[in-house]
Amino acid sequence: MIPSKETVRNRILSRVERDKDTGCWVYCGFWDKFGSGHIKVGEIKFCVRKVVAWVYGRCELWDETYVARTCRTPACCNPRHIAVFDGLSSFMSHHQRGAKRKPYITKGRVLCARLLIREGWTYQQVADEMGVSLNTVWRLAKKKPRVT
Ligand SMILES: [Zn+2]
């Protein structure tokens, strides 16, 4: 049973602390390891931004839209700081636009970086190739790859 938008909105707002400087609504409930808020609606856990977009009528809970924050506060759920995208590709291009956003390093890319280093690429070359900082490559390289 899905509770009403009104109920859910009140539950979120009761856990929000408003930051006067940034205008951010910091959600003070459950956070994942990236600092994004999560909340259960019915029995299912959602990112709090998706739920906020839903209670403010910008998307459906079950639809294919993606939501992203436009500010720098991971736990922010101010509806004015939330962008709604109707597909994965527009969402991805939003993510790739901001250079200040941390690049997302997948397992595959880590393996790829290590392979290139083993093949004699310099850390700088790998960093340029993958679009990450030298520091990131250095950290990836320090962990010894598993020999298979
Ligand atoms: Zn914000």
Please tell me about this protein's structure.
The protein has helices at 5-13, 48-55, 88-97, 107-118, 123-130, 134-142, and strands at 16-18, 25-27, 30-31, 37-41, 44-47, 66-69, 82-85. The protein is elongated, with a radius of gyration of 19 Å. It is of the alpha+beta class and 148 residues long. The structure holds zinc ion. The site of zinc ion (ZN) has 8 residues, from loops.
List keywords for this structure.
alpha+beta; two-stranded antiparallel ribbon; 6 helices; 3-stranded antiparallel β-sheet; binds zinc ion; 148 residues
Radius of gyration: 19 Å
Query: Could you give the order of strands across the largest sheet?
Result: 3-4-5
Give me the secondary-structure category: alpha+beta
Helix/strand order, N-terminal first = HEEEEEHEEHHHH
Q: Give the domain tally.
A: 2
Shape estimate: elongated
Helix content: 25-40%
Strand content: 15-25%
The total count of strands amounts to 7
The small-molecule ligands in this entry are: zinc ion
Gap from first CA to last CA = 48 Å
Biggest sheet overview: 3 strands, antiparallel
The number of helices is 6
Low-confidence stretches: 99-103
- Oligomeric category: single chain
Q: What's the mean pLDDT score?
A: 83
